[in-house]
Design a protein that fits this description.
This protein is of the alpha+beta class. The protein contains four helices and seven strands, in the order H-H-E-E-E-H-E-E-E-E-H. The chain has one domain: Chalcone isomerase. Strands 1, 2, 3, 4, 5, 6 and 7 form a seven-stranded antiparallel sheet that branches. Bound molecules: heme C.
């Protein structure tokens, strides 16, 4: 399965940092975890800072339950976009975005997702071209839902 996909991936497009960041900025097309704007304490071995809010685009939401707390399908559909907003304090200023975008056919996807992190102004901190090399092992920790971690903590 993986081998079959990788030959297709060679021809796939590269999702650039700028394109991906732009997709994270249309707030109206996202729904927050639990349909709540509250900031949540970071959980588990999260490397991403003290408080978080996680939002999902409508592709991702289509595979979740009505209360937006869980994945209700087996996998997220392609083009699902998950954005984590990281805050130093509850309700405090935004420190960074961590992003997962499910495009298995992208040349720079890793385990089906394109992975990146940005400062609030869009400056890449962790570029998408790295294929999530530093993200995937953590996100594969047991209890993950299609590599998404947040559901097992909140
Ligand atoms: C040390 C382990 C670890 C590493 C490394 C890591 N993450 Fe995470 N990540 C987590 C945990 C745990 C959560 C959920 C809990 C939380 O953040 O409070 C999470 C949450 C997220 C979320 C929200 C969706 C979800 O899976 O819950 C995104 C998006 C995300 N991380 C992106 C990244 C990216 C991009 C990288 C690599 C640059 C990365 N992460 C590296 C542990 C990790």
């Amino acid at each position: 399965m993986l081998a079959a996909c990788s030959s297709k991936k060679e021809e796939g497009v590269v999702i650039s940092d700028a394109t991906l960041f732009e997709l994270t900025q249309t707030l109206s097309s996202f729904t927050y975890l639990k349909r709540s704007l509250d900031t949540l304490p970071a959980a588990g071995n999260s490397p991403h800072g003290g408080f978080v809010r996680v939002r999902f685009n409508q592709k991702a939401i289509s595979a979740m339950n009505d209360s937006a707390t869980r994945l209700s399908k087996t996998f997220f559909p392609d083009e699902s976009l998950v954005v984590k907003e990281v805050y130093g304090t509850s309700g405090g200023p935004l420190l960074e975005y961590s992003v997962m975008y499910k495009i298995p056919g992208a040349a720079n996807s890793g385990s089906g997702w394109v992975w990146a992190e940005y400062l609030p102004d869009g400056t890449p901190e962790y570029p998408a071209i790295k294929k999530g090399d530093d993200c995937i092992s953590c996100h594969s920790a047991s209890g993950n839902y299609d590599l998404v971690q947040i559901f097992r903590f909140h």
